[in-house]
Amino acid sequence: MLTRFVPRALAALLVCLAVLGTGCSSGSSSSAPAWARGMATVQADRLPAEARRTLRLIDDGGPFPYAKDGSVFGNFEGELPRQRRGHYREYTVRTPGERDRGARRIVTGSGGETYYTDDHYASFKAVLR
Questions:
Q1: pLDDT tens across 69-100, in order?
Q2: What residue range is the signal peptide (predicted)?
Q3: Which residues are the active-site residues?
């Protein structure tokens, strides 16, 4: 009798773990704004401290530490939703230990969108604020 119970209990445990794992993922969220649906998301307070500082500078309108901060982001990689040129602006997120701008950026959209990349535009997460 015990041998029949163990496989069922194990199967039930695996189903529960799968459901919990899906609910805790950093993937898209049903409560995410429309512009963020279908992509990975991150809460702003979960970003690295340097990214949170960059967000504050953006909110305050600067001053920005890098000359290219606030410049047009062309989205040439096509990782963000397609928009007209000038829709997106990019800002450097300081990377400790890097002597140049590093790979981390925040990209904002004129519609209030905010995205974060830590791999120089290879992938993005929608920042939920």
A1: 999 999 999 999 999 999 999 999 999 998 89
A2: 1-31
A3: 90, 120
